[in-house]
UniProtKB/TrEMBL annotation, chain A:
Coiled coil: none annotated. GO terms for cellular component: cytoplasm; nucleus. Its EC number is 3.5.4.33. Belongs to the cytidine and deoxycytidylate deaminase family. ADAT2 subfamily. GO terms for biological process: tRNA wobble adenosine to inosine editing. GO terms for molecular function: tRNA-specific adenosine-34 deaminase activity; zinc ion binding. Its cofactor is Zn(2+). It comes from Myripristis murdjan (pinecone soldierfish). This is tRNA-specific adenosine deaminase 2.
Automatic annotation (TrEMBL), chain B:
This is Adenosine deaminase tRNA specific 3. CDD domains: nucleoside_deaminase. The gene is ADAT3. Its cofactor is Zn(2+). The lineage of its organism: Eukaryota, Metazoa, Chordata, Craniata, Vertebrata. Pfam families: dCMP_cyt_deam_1 (PF00383). PANTHER family: CYTOSINE DEAMINASE FAMILY MEMBER (PTHR11079), INACTIVE TRNA-SPECIFIC ADENOSINE DEAMINASE-LIKE PROTEIN 3-RELATED (PTHR11079:SF156). Belongs to the cytidine and deoxycytidylate deaminase family. ADAT3 subfamily. It comes from Myripristis murdjan.
Length: 185, 359
């Protein structure tokens, strides 16, 4: 149904404009803010294909009791559903889809993005605990010929704002936790 | 749930136990589980150059050791012995480490190292000393017996042995009854892999077990033919979630993917209340026919898996081949990994997969 066996070559010209990045990241930040106001992990994430949101997600670990249900994984599921319903080939959609996310994807999500051949990820702040795009490990460009396609990252977009939201969330979640040490990237 | 138990058929046989086991295709003597250790544990012991000096008069030894230790205390090299005995045919009875080459003072590359340049005579009396020479010593304390044995070839080294690791490296950590159980679990993973292959998936199976209750929690096969991220491990994690009242995937199409509802164990529930409630994969073992990829390995970290056993390595594997995510220091959860469980049968599945791709 969604076979993604395709070459690793890609059109070099595929890259969103600064204006597009700004617009979609603003949207991702709105999602994160909304999550924060509802007491959920403030991560906003959307997959954009051809100027259209084909997947978005928020963390769903608690509800599903499945620790792999990160926002990116939900968004990728939506993308695949969208392809199925629109009757288009997932491979050709994925290779022209950008992920906009307020926090660096974790190692698992980064590998999933490779497996689906997503070419570009734009993210806000680094994920020091689990980051798979350089912070803990770098699976974006690693030599993994059987794990999809390497992808590019645009890092640090409104990073401080993203960090602040995370800090606020973790403070409210556990009032007894020691104050997180401030770290400037 | 019903579990595939290949041994059941054999049990109806009238042959004596020993003969039956020998004739079985899946003899648990035919494989061994080896630990996948961190790089620090599995790499060869690193060696560094040190300067040693012969002790020509044995009676001076204790004074020399005292004076050498005060002049060169060798911080960070507590694992090496200061003095070693020489072979009977040696012209001197003992040799002592003076210092690391990198710590030695005033050594011109032109000049040979000498007792005078190394040991000021007001600190170390030269009686009973021969001409210094360079030796290799282990840079770090050995963590495993193989590292210890290699290190000891160069210089006597002390070793705080972890017997579990030593047994594990020999493939002898698990007793025959334990191996029989492990084999049974992996056999159901193999059976699930075959069932998955029947419905057009890759031939990979995974089984999650609660080792305390010796109970199978989930049996899964790869479903990536329908969803590119539904690798067997991801499927098994979601099946565990389903058993705990959660879950996100739909399994209607996959009758071979099964999960167990938590058994209400009245004794533990009343005596220990909420503390025994299962939490994701905490304390569980995973048996998977093939080494997990990066996505699946990290999913296991997030799910707090207890231990992972796999049959064969895979080219991009993240629990030993390309990465050792289970030993990654920066991550908040680490776990033990063993490879080689029922390796031949798991290898055979890979062969099936290869043939499928050729077609």
């Amino acid at each position: 149904l969604c076979r993604l066996d395709m070459g690793t070559e890609r059109e070099q010209s595929f890259h969103p404009s600064d204006e597009e990045i700004q617009r979609w990241m603003a949207s991702a930040f709105d999602m994160a803010k909304d999550a924060l106001e509802n007491g959920e992990v403030p991560v906003g994430c959307l997959l954009v294909y051809n100027n259209q949101v084909v997947g978005k997600g928020r963390n769903d670990v608690n509800e599903t009791k499945n620790a792999t249900r990160h926002a990116e994984m939900l968004a990728l599921d939506q993308l695949l559903d969208w392809c199925r319903h629109s009757n288009v080939d997932a491979g050709s959609v994925c290779e022209r889809t950008v992920l906009y996310v307020t926090v660096e994807p974790c190692i698992m999500c980064a590998a999933a993005l490779r497996l689906l051949h997503i070419p570009l990820v734009v993210f806000g702040c680094r994920n020091e605990r689990f980051g798979g795009c350089g912070s803990v490990m770098d699976v974006t460009s690693a030599q993994l010929p059987h794990t999809g396609t390497a992808f590019q990252c645009v890092a640090g977009y409104r990073a401080e704002e993203a960090v602040e939201m995370l800090k606020t969330f973790y403070k409210q979640e556990n009032p007894n936790a020691p104050k997180p040490r401030t770290r400037k990237d | 749930m019903s579990l595939h138990n290949v041994k059941k058929e054999a049990a109806e046989d009238m042959e004596p136990q020993s003969k039956r086991r020998r004739s079985s295709e899946c003899d648990s003597d035919s494989w061994a589980a080896y630990p996948v250790l961190s790089d620090e544990q599995s790499q060869e012991a690193e060696l560094i150059e040190a300067i040693a000096v012969p002790i020509t008069n044995k009676k001076e030894t204790s004074r020399l050791v005292r004076e050498l230790s005060s002049l060169y205390p060798l911080p960070g090299l507590q694992h090496i012995k200061r003095v070693r005995a020489c072979k009977p045919d040696s012209p001197h009875p003992l040799e002592a480490v003076v210092c690391l080459v990198s710590d030695a003072p005033h050594i011109d590359s032109e000049e040979a190292i000498s007792v005078d340049s190394l040991l000021p005579s007001d600190r170390v009396r030269h009686d009973g000393l021969g001409e210094p020479f360079v030796v290799k010593v282990p840079a770090c304390p050995p963590l495993t017996r193989p590292q210890f044995e290699l290190a000891s070839k160069h210089w006597p080294t002390s070793f705080h042995e972890d017997k579990q690791v030593t047994f594990a490296l020999r493939g002898e950590l698990f007793s025959p009854p334990q191996k029989a159980r492990m084999q049974e679990y992996m056999l159901s993973a193999v059976a699930a892999a075959r069932a998955g292959k029947e419905s057009g998936m890759e031939a990979i199976g995974a089984v999650v077990v609660d080792p305390k209750l010796e109970k199978v929690i989930a049996v899964a096969h790869d479903c990536r033919g329908d969803h590119p991220l539904y690798h067997a491990v991801m499927v098994s994690i979601d099946l565990v979630a389903k058993g705990q009242g959660g879950g996100a995937y739909s399994f209607d199409k996959y009758p071979a993917c099964q999960f167990a509802l938590p058994t209400s164990n009245s004794t533990t529930e009343t005596s220990q209340n909420e503390a025994v409630q299962p939490y994701i994969c905490t304390g569980y073992d995973l048996y998977v026919t093939r080494e997990p990829c990066v996505m699946c390995a990290m999913a296991l970290v997030h799910s707090r898996i207890g231990r992972v056993f796999y049959g064969t390595s895979s080219a991009d594997g993240a629990l030993g081949t390309k990465y050792k995510i289970h030993t990654q220091k920066d991550l908040n959860h680490r776990f033990e990994v063993f490879r080689g469980v029922l390796s031949k049968q798991c290898e055979h599945l890979n062969g099936l997969e290869y043939i499928r791709k050729l077609k």
